[in-house]
Design a protein that fits this description.
seven-stranded mixed beta sheet
Amino acid sequence: MQEKIRFVELKDSTGILNIYTPYILDTTISFEYEPPSLSEFTERISNISSKYPYLVYERNSKILGFAYGSPYQERIAYLYDADLSIYLAPEAQNSGIGKKLYSCLLDLLQKQGFYNVYACITANNQRSIDFHAAFGFRNLGPHPKAGYKFDQWLDIIWMDKQLQQPDGSPRPLKPISAFNNNDILKLF
């Protein structure tokens, strides 16, 4: 069995969208209502992966999960913060794949120079809350009735983790292009 974590390639869009679509259609984990088109999703991947780590977990050439960082907020003062996302195929859940993906993602974000990472989680998703807590994320509290999906109002919580202690002015972020799949292999 051949397993690896690697940077996303645009040709992965279909496999990643196949994992993500049930989260949209069948759960309140994603607040999207309709799956994006393949071209829209490929464009999302391209935009995000040009600045942030976007990782896939692959076993025997099949993508079983993906995780990525993205902008936390659009204002320039938030430049050193990242929002995180992770999604796994059903057969990859409870297998340790999520932990491996997140460990690589957090390490790469720290090496790029990010200071804080955030996760927005539907409050009834205790599994995700526990997963993030195991990585040292703090629960910043609820935002009651923040989203509406499947005929119900849903609370969200934000969780955060500091990757490095701020000390004076931040150094410029290292571009994601400064890293390659060999950097991930060292972590995995």
